[in-house]
Specification:
Layout (H helix, E strand, L loop, with lengths): L13 H12 L1 E7 H10 L8 H8 L2 E4 L11 E4 L3 H11 L3 E3 L4 H9 L3 E8 L20 E7 L5 E6 L5 E2 L1
Parallel strand pairs: 1-2, 1-4, 2-3, 5-8
Antiparallel strand pairs: 5-7, 6-7
Length: 170
């Protein structure tokens, strides 16, 4: 899952773009780890006004989970420093749509540990990298129920799983 900008681009197509657009427009907010936040904050603000997707990325509230980040300057960004379960519960209470987690392996692992994920939307690519960050660290456990499997042109597959726990979307 690490550095998708380096290996996933050849697989990008209109079907995946449509799925990502639907996913983004169904969300009420982003929940991001520091590394993903910094990458997004360095890229998306300069795309404001380019298209509806870019505008939506910039307009949504962004919650970044970090004890290290000093300032969050990207529009509508808030740093969450303590008590992840309580913070996520409060964010969900305020919204009605999805809380979207993009990338952010360490954050996704913490959400899983605290039973805060109710749906996983995994895009599986026809590529083997052999190293890098893993989404699920050794010892991670979850009972998942497949609710959708969809193949995209180029061999990419969407696997959507739900968990019976209340939580956020990853």
């Amino acid at each position: 899952m690490e550095a998708p900008e380096k290996w996933s681009i050849p697989f990008w197509n209109d079907e995946i773009a449509s799925f990502k657009r639907e996913e983004l427009f169904a969300a009420d907010a982003h929940l991001l780890g520091r590394v993903t936040y910094e990458a997004f904050a360095a890229s998306w603000p300069s795309r404001a006004g380019a298209d509806a997707f870019s505008d939506r990325m910039n307009e949504l509230p962004k919650y970044v989970v970090s004890k290290q980040l000093k300032k969050a300057e990207w529009k509508d960004s808030t740093i969450l420093r303590d008590d992840l379960p309580q913070a996520v519960a409060e964010i969900k209470r305020l919204g009605s749509g999805d809380l979207l987690v993009g990338g952010s392996a360490t954050l996704a692992q913490a959400l899983l540990t605290h039973d805060l994920v109710d749906e996983w939307r995994l895009l599986t690519y026809p590529a083997v990298l052999g190293d890098g960050k893993r989404l699920f660290k050794q010892g991670a456990k979850a009972k998942l129920r497949l609710v959708e499997a969809r193949a995209f042109a180029g061999g990419v597959a969407l696997l959507r799983y739900q968990d019976d726990h209340g939580g956020t979307r990853a």
